[in-house]
Amino acid sequence: MKKFLKIVVVLIAILAVVFYFAVYPKLDLISGFAAKSVASGTFLDNRPLEVIESGDNDIPLVDLAQNAVDKTGQFAVSSVYGIKARKAIYRPGLGATLIDDSFDVSKPYEVPHRNFHPNTSIPYPYGAGAPHDSTFSNIDYALLQKTVAQAFDAKGEKSKRTRAVVVLYKDHLIYEQYANGFTKDSRLLGWSMTKSLTGTYFGILQYQGKIDIRKPAPIAAWQNDDRKKITLHNLLQMNSGLEWEEQYDKICDATQMLFQARDMAAVQRDKPLIGQPNASWNYSSGTTNLLSGILRQQFKTHQDYLDFWYSSLLDKIGMHSALVETDMAGNFVGSSYGWATPRDWAKFGLLYLHKGLWNGERLFAEDWAKYVSTPTPTSEGRYGAQFWLNAGGKFPNVPREMYYCSGFQGQMVAIFPNHDLVVVRMGLKEDPGFDFNALLSGIVKSIKK
Asked: ∠51-55-56 over CA atoms, to 5°?
């Protein structure tokens, strides 16, 4: 018996050491991810806690968190076995923000002024009315429906984890499907699809003559070293040469920024140069949040910055469900925290399909769409300017012209310029676990040119 107890004690000691060195350093990030996810899902999409825990937070290690929601106080708290508790607060107009102990929750805050005037007399996608009930003779609807249906799990399965698919063709909604518990009105997190929104604001400002992306980035801290050579163009293409590590299954620059930083725009700003601009492609959420901070500098007041994101784009094209959340410093988290319904995400794709023209009004120059879909040097045809590309053949049976917004766990807005087609897929599994090649190629095949 004594020998058995000694073995048990040794095993417990080993487990404790493993926990301390392998898991304990991650607890702050685990609790932070969980609290932020619970607060956003609860207050932005009215999801029950059990749905968030079994869906959004069903991620290794994150699923260790215990979560609680205070709907009266509008916040969520998460911890791992009572250790490293983190809190995320909800503020109408700004969404959920993960805070630390120094954040003053009683301090007044500004919110974006929104223009909520959906026109129900105009059919979706240009208005808020019911979509046209029309059919196209060149569409194989049986193949289309079969292809989309295969992207969803059968009852009881949990392998594909698709929540929504929306297909627009020639400005018409030709098909959509939603997983159980989700509808056309469900707000879904785009994760890094938000980067494509952030990049678009530079296209809008450039079209308005208020910024020149070919000029050096306006960052005072870079003026005394080689970083002064970095242009906005380099930042938009993720080709600055700045140090950055982005790997979501470990403690790294990206996870520390999203779940610990007060000012996310400052994290990439303070990194050293380790490569050459225009020759060192490196995907970086920090770069996009730095771009969000640069956008903030273009306005006289914080209120103007907040308003611009909606008045110039989101509300302009009727993405009234859209909301981009802010960090503790009041910056939009342009890398990751954009929410919208699948139909509204499709509107964003449609704007690019029409090269910046929305219902007769031009938001950015026609050549901006070409700019964002032109391969970044050294990216092997995978990346443009805050958009991903299929130019390198990532999806072998999908037209190379396709470019797309892409987010964690397989969020996608795919734009097919030569096919007059936009496809949105939202879910909880990404490539290679989810077969985007089959979904996208099947939809294209269902439309005869």
From this structure: 105
> Is the distance from CB of 174 to CB of 166 less than 8 angstroms?
no
**Per-residue model confidence (pLDDT) at position 181:** 95
Give the containing element (helix H, strand E) for 287: helix 285-297
- Supply the DSSP symbol for 310: I
- Provide the token pair at 260: 């610990």
Q: Which amino acid type is present at position 200?
A: T
Gap between the Cα atoms of 135 and 62, Å rounded: 45
Tell me the backbone φ, ψ of residue 101, rounded to 5 degrees.
-65, -20
Cβ within 8 Å of residue 120, ≥6 positions away: 127, 128, 129
Nearest Cα neighbor of 386 from 373, 377, 396 is 373
The neighbouring-strand residues paired with 165 are 177, 425
SS3 track for 192-246: CHHHHHHHHHHHHHHHCCCCCCCCECCCHHHCCCHHHHCEHHHHHCCCCCECCCC
322 touches 230 (CB < 8 A): no
393: left (phi over 0), alpha (psi -120 to 50) or beta: left
The CA distance from 419 to 225, in Å, is: 46
> For position 250, what pLDDT does the model report?
84
What is the value of pTM for the model shown? 0.94
**Among candidates 413, 312, 422, which has minimal Cα distance to 358?**
312
The whole-number mean pLDDT for each consecutive block of 10 residues of the chain, a chain of 449 residues, reads 61 50 75 98 98 96 96 98 96 98 96 91 94 93 98 94 98 98 98 98 98 98 97 98 92 95 98 96 98 98 98 97 98 98 98 97 98 97 98 98 98 98 97 95 95
Question: Which is nearest to 103 in space by CA: 85, 91, 92, 87?
Answer: 87
If phi > 0 it is left, if psi is from -120 to 50 it is alpha, else beta; for residue 219 that is beta
Take residue 349 and report the two structure tokens written for it.
């794709």
Of 217, 223, 204, residue with least CA distance to 308: 204
Between helix 302-309 and helix 285-297 the angle, nearest 10°, is 120
Q: Is 252 helix (H, G, I), strand (E, B) or coil?
A: coil
pLDDT for the residue numbered 141: 97
Whole-number Cα distances in Å, 426 to 35, 406, 410, 449: 21, 10, 7, 27
Helix spans in 298-414 (H): 302-309, 342-353, 366-372
**Structure confidence at residue 20 (pLDDT):** 47
